[in-house]
Amino acid sequence: MIRRIVLVLLGLVLLIMPVTAQDGIDLPADLYLLLNEGIVQRVGLGRSGIVQVTPDDVFVLDFAVAPDDNWLAYRTQEGITLTNMYSNALPQSIENERASVPFIRGRGATIAWSPDSNALAYTTLYGGRVWYKGGIYTDLLTPDLINMVWSPAGSYLAAEAENNVWWIFRRDPDEMRLVSAIPVSPGTAWVNDSTLAFVPPEGGVILMDMAQGNAQSILLPQDNVYYLPHWDGEGIEVYFSTSVDQTAPTGRLLRVLLDGTIEPISELDVELRALRWGPEGDWLLAFQGNALALVNPLNGQGFTLPFNGISTYGWGIVPAEPLDTLALPAPASFIAIGNTTGIAQAWRMNSDQLPVTITPAVVDVTEYAISFDGERVAYVSNSSLWLHTVGSNAAPLELVRLGIDRNIHPAFSADGMSLFYRDVEEAGGGIWVLDLTNIEMPAEPTPRPTAQPTLEPGTPTATATINPNETPEPTVIPTFVPTSTPMAENVPLVLPDYSPEIVLPDTETGIAYISAEP
Q: What is the mean pLDDT of residues 254-260?
């Protein structure tokens, strides 16, 4: 209920804000728009801005964002292509003209990834089709499909056809098997991986469990008609009909728990025609006339987004709640852009600890591999293959200048003494191997003082704490007299990068000092 109160306040703010003042739109996830020009744009959260994510030289018909939020599947007249939106990995074609074209766009997900990313379902002119990651294809011969919705674990696929008809398919290892059908239901909602809630036109809310031979149970009786069911994690949010004319339905939002308990949410009527739920159920969406509007599910108040010429739309993944640490079964690694440097680095995160960078690249890291003992990392940056000792302050070692800049796929041998990678040189392309047995890694840099040194009376030395975190006692540092005379007293002299020495001025009164950072 608190979330709903916040939603009302946010909706009011959006309604009174002029479009020109909206530098950022508070969306539940990244919004992807397919424009009439055939390009897909990502409208990022907050002030992330708008980015084109498909090439200029292709005309996109529809698309879907993968569950990892990195890969995009898009369809053209020539077929379906997968592309990574955040790396320069080569796009991968997974289907030719057999992918057909969508029957109707804008009324549902015409391309849908399975939750494990191992299957992709898409509507066609003849029905539908599913691609399996292993290269298997299976056709769905049910006509006029407009919307595909996978169950939470991807065991079943609900395919919506024209006139609110639903076909339910079970995902087998090498085919999609039709197991059930719903003649009419204005909306469905997966309650778990095998149970689907639907709302027949004669009234009521019904649960159907495909794992139990399509067994049906009545959650709400047929006394009233309902629309647009949505599972919110605790119960089913659904609209209780308040109109007689089903061609222009209106309803009030309520929640029904699985034990049949009804919780009213709103007492205001909402006009339900041509509405769909958005991610997390925070908004309804109305898509008409190449324009997209957010609609408050409590009162029906709408806000048209400031974008024109939209053919269809889709969503990225709803971000998880921010956490400082995670409980992990094993160390995790990933590539991410640092907030301070703006450079993509490889990171490693141990259980219940903050992630740390393990690469010192000055240009974005695109690929990496960690040795089995976790002590070394090989990474691709600026068209070179580099080797670095994890946790070391030493410079990385450039192993080889690559002939290509992506799909290098570095990999360590089990003993860490060999590094395999893919490359294409003038002499030919293939898999290459580097013997790391006799490679000498760069040495750690000489410690530099991190505090103001103290002169030792009567001796040509000074003391300073080299690294307060590792050297608890002051260290004696040799000093020497410079050849040039300082212009004024108390002039700080800057050390060259290669020298740890403290430079003292050749005057009786002047004292030079240095506070160098390692």
A: 96
